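Cross-posted from the bioinformatics board.
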Amino acid sequence: MTRFAAPAALLAVLYFAPALSGPYLLHVLVLCYLYAIPAVGLNLMLGYTGLVSLGHIAFAGIGGYTAAVLMVDARLGYWSALAVAVAAAGAAGAAIGLVCLRFRSHFFMIVTLAFGLMLYSVMNNWDDVTRGAAGFPGIPRPPAFTTLESFYRLALTGALAAFAVQWLVVRSDFGRILIALRQDERLAEAKGVNATLYKTAVFALGSALAGLGGALQVSFLRVAAPASFNLAESINAVLIVIVGGAGSLAGPALGALLFVGLPEYLRVAAEWRLVVFGALLVLITLFAPRGIAGVIDDGWRRLARRGR
Amino acid sequence: MAQALLEQVINGLMTGSVYVLVALGMVLIYGVMHVLNFAHGVLFMLGGYVCHFFFTRVTGSYVLSLLLSMVVLALVGLAVERGVFRPLQGNLRNQVIASLGLILAIENLVVALWGPNALQLRVASTETLVALGELRFPAHHLMIIGITAVCVALMFGFLKWSKLGTAIRATSQDRNAAMVVGIPVEKVDMATFCLGTALAALGGALVGPLFLVFPQMGDAPMVKGLAGILLGGMGSVPGAVVGGLIIGVTESVSTLFLPTDYRDSVAFAVMVLILLGRPQGLFGVRVRGEA
Amino acid sequence: MRFTILLAACLAATAAAQDKVAVGVVTSLTGPMAPPGKFQMNGFNLAAEEINGAGGIDVGGRKYLVELKVYDTRANPAEGASAMQRLTTVDKVPVVLGELHSGVAAAEAPVAQDYGVPLILTVPTGPNLTEQGNRFLFRVNASNDQLNLALADFVAGQGWAPLSFIAWNNDAGRGGVNGMKKLIGEAKTGYVGYFNVGDVDFSSHVSNIRAANARAVMLFMDEEPGSLAIKQIRDAGLKTQLIGTLAMGSDRFLKRLDAARLEGMVQYNAFPPNANTPRIRAFSERYKKKFGEEAHGFAAQSYDGLMLAAAAMRKAGTVTDGKALREALASLEHDGVIGRIKFDAKGQAHPPVYVTQWCANGTRRILYPEAFKADCGAG
């Protein structure tokens, strides 16, 4: 029972945050939640199944732009548009995933990167539909969640839903098979697992989650712009997952907090902020390879040992 | 039409040559250390900046500045190899992260030190024009193609006939066997990384006078060089050369038929298509579990 | 950025007891849009220095020194939104200025509206920014539509057809091309080529332009790629008429090439630095004195933006009430460096747009509008 005391307390604090803190902090937290959702999807793909995709956020873009077009041009209701956007991202993930999964390790990475770049080109160049590089403004927030405080609760709920999905998957047989595939694919196949089927499924699921994050993000910012879904953002997502702790349940949350929170905190340092950030990344890989979750884990263990 | 085609082919050979220089460095490093160095692009860029520094502050000789920048970057490569990639050997994921961290740090460091504006390298060879029939090209274009060709030839010779070159080949074929035979693999790692970085620096210094020196100048060549290696076959040196050139020429020629916005996509689409049919790349050897 | 730190330090040292008002600025300090960002900051810094040199803004009997609170948005909408959020709710500035990128401005504008803090844009040109019904969004510079209108008018008068384009693959480039195509019509449009920010190789575009026999080529890009494109066009032996954006009307641009290669290139210009109009002359001289180079249009627009904000504060009699400032801005008529600034119902100003041309001796002449026509050296 005490295992759940700490997370429950944390959740309570987070839910009541609008009453406790100012709008800027809420805004930054919303961004953290919205960045965490695609990160959860990528964690399932990368952390648990071992698929390093460098084009993940392009699927967030698919979700975002689909939502934009449906909500603004087709005047579809908010929630229906959101659902279709998530489904579209998932479907795209399944289709593109099938092509990418014909490759392994380095090749897989580069092909996913290539698809990410191609999708970005479409978002940026297809002026008639996506409004091109200047962005697609005028995207609404859902009717009951137009203020920052109410949208905050929506974003938190969305993030929790994503984490719930992650937890369910990891605990299930599906999840166990994914982990088996990451550890030794040949052995799993020898035991009768259809590797391609499972990998495509997780690619699709991961992309759908990315789509959810993207759709919510364009709704929050009230604009969909290609700049939000470019290669740099995809790389950011990989870093969030790995630095947070790939293959751990809390990893995406920790990573998102670090990657959104820290640059905001460092705003004072202007040009040097990214130099510091990059240096930090290198140091983390050298001295904390299992990411923040790993550091925390090691910390617990050391404490537990002391206690004995 | 034939003339436009010829013009684009020559342009493609020029951009392709730059990709080849990047690809060569990356493929050597990959072959020996099994490290995919994404930071190669910023090293390319640093090569351009260092060359500019020497050219404008120290010596007015472009050739000397170019050579000096190669030396300096080789030393930088040494530092990166020992400090970052050697400790991370075998861990692909962390190598990628570390590379990305390096990119962020170095690109922004350059902006903080030199400012964001592009720098100019005023070199004679960019001003003189060479006529090929009705077409005209700056001499520098053809110089890039020429120098790259010479480098490639030297590289082949070096790898085939020199002691270090043979050691490099041996280590990339089978690291353990090389150790057994008494090859100092750690020294080979260092030498290869330095060599690869020097090639990248050469690329940056060659491109600088033509296209200006700016912080993001290495991003596209790195990605294209990577595509070239994949196309040619990971670990294959001739593959890197052919792959780089194919990417360059295909890109340029495609603009005759397709909207130029999609130029980058075309190169990648071609790469994906070829890999789908031949996953090990044109010259690569099919390794079980890799593709 | 160093200027701002220095400025802030000086202010802090000499005016410990003096009242201050913090004005928010969003711009690109790093990333590929950093070069134009620098010009923007120069404009803000120059204006701030002049205001503070005169003792500050006179509001309600007290003088307030201007302090610039600058945040880097790196051409990323999420960063823009959070910078805006921080400025309005943490730094509590009464007004925000700047931005370079239309997509980012589109994310900042709703936040401005949410918290009742006016956002005065000084560079983004995306036309649909002012179409969102946002009463707190103002734009000092001309939008793509306005720029294109002036240029199309001029080009039609010259009979240059077919017109080819090489453009940045971003909001400024694509927006510009689309706008021009609508104005001159498909029949007169030749080859259209896009390139990504950071791309430096224009050889494919050059070949296509040659093949299309373009009478004139319009370059929608900033001066760095512009100088490369023109060099490559001329190196390939093409003698087409060149048309450029305001970035290609500066001396700095000229330093990268020589006037002979430009061969009578024209460009639309928000700000011909050597024009004989006193307001332009005076500004150019002050700018040159402080920064050692020729004034850039983005700097002039930004300078006007800050001066306008100061004027609004004086008129509204407040340095804290964003809504009052909004009302003041909506009704204000301000004589800026770029011309008379008065916002229409959508928050858009209508500054004059010039067309200048390079003379062989490296000076400029003004060709359009008729009223401002001037000869070589006065452009």
